[in-house]
Amino acid sequence: DDALVDCRACPRLVAWREQVAREKRAAFRDEEYWGRPVPGFGPADASLLIVGLAPAAHGGNRTGRMFTGDRSGDVLYAALYDAGLASQPTATHIGDGLELFGTRITSPVHCAPPANRPTVVERDTCRHWLEQELDLLSPTLRSVVVLGGFGWQALLPVLSAAGWAIPVPRPKFGHGAHVLLAPTEAREYPLYLFGCYHVSQQNTFTGRLTKEMVTDVLRDAARAASLLPPG
Ligand code: SF4
Beta strands of 14-133 (E only): which ranges? Predict the structure, then answer.
């Protein structure tokens, strides 16, 4: 995390994250924006990992913490709290007291992209951070919830390269998708992979995704990781 926050490998994203931090949204004009790569949030020995897309310009890029201070985070943290995986249902700023239990949140791209759309090159450039995070988590990691198809596409090759066996044909993303990645010589334990629609306003404001739907997936993933008793 300490090394990540100094990364400047993607010229377009560095320019954008810093421009947003200088110009700010009117509602936050008195705040100091973070304006740097946003590291994963949660304990380093988590057994459940949640993988999103990238930080939001006025959310994580402002507060410096994943999904903190935006509408997507409002839904995600409320669901995590309902599932018993967070100490409180809200996430407003670093120092708000929020704690995650056995759970960590990260993304395949760590800088806020224009229009929430990183390029394929940017995704691939950021990939080594995700690989290192997975490697560090691997002794305790047992399940992963992927929010949205972008994260799913980005994560499968990384999991494969990290030594987990990806079924053939490659499993498709969908809400409620559930895949078991078998252990290999490289990885002693299986990994349970769950798909969940992304908690973006596009999905939650239209009713395509509700907080209860997110909570259900989180509970299933937490049970697979033995964070909750079997339901
Ligand atoms: Fe570095 Fe990733 Fe940000 Fe690119 S997106 S500058 S690789 S942290």
Answer: 48-51, 103-106
